[in-house]
Specification:
single chain, 165 residues, alpha+beta, Alpha-Beta Plaits, six-stranded antiparallel β-sheet, two-stranded antiparallel sheet, 10 strands, globular
Length: 165
């Protein structure tokens, strides 16, 4: 089994409930097993700012799937929750976004899949929950904690357990 780090985000509907259900759908306990889950964080929109705030979280999973198979599974979960990437505004509102952030220490650069995630170290909304569950992680030779220290985290708020917005 290989550890993979995954980010989830969304800003439409009951995102907390969507996260809970999506993580259950992604993590079947056999091919993908949940190891750790961060709290939910309310975060300002990134890229396209004229939209509601997002909720973001990260999970660590152990998987027997290849990186491509894990990505395919994540995309299937997104579609099951109403996501249609081809019909949406880039960085715009969405019910669910699932990003593979890292897959062990594997580097992949192929159509539709780049690992580690190419914008991982630019996004405080990903690094804040990631540091919560893997504070000592080093991805592509870079400490996630030190990467976070170089970013603006204003507006990122840890939500109490059970809070949906």
């Amino acid at each position: 089994m290989t550890e993979s780090l995954i980010g989830l985000g969304g800003n439409l509907g009951n995102v907390r409930e969507t996260f809970d259900r999506a993580i259950r759908a992604l993590c079947d306990g056999a091919e993908v097993r949940l190891v750790a889950r961060a709290a939910n964080y309310r975060t300002p929109p990134w890229g396209f700012e004229a939209q509601p705030p997002f909720l973001n979280t990260c999970v660590a999973v152990e998987t027997a799937l290849s990186p491509r198979a894990l990505l395919d599974r994540a995309m299937a979960v997104e579609r099951a929750f109403g996501r249609r990437r081809e019909a949406e505004t880039r960085w715009g509102p969405r019910t669910l976004d699932i990003d593979l952030l890292a897959y062990d220490d594997v580097a992949v650069d192929e159509p539709g899949l780049t690992l580690p995630h190419p914008r991982l170290f630019e996004r405080a909304f990903v690094l804040v929950p990631l540091v919560e569950i893997r504070p000592d992680a080093v991805i592509a030779g870079r400490s996630v904690r030190s990467a976070l220290a170089s970013l603006d985290t204003r507006g990122i708020e840890r939500l109490p357990d059970g809070a949906s917005r």
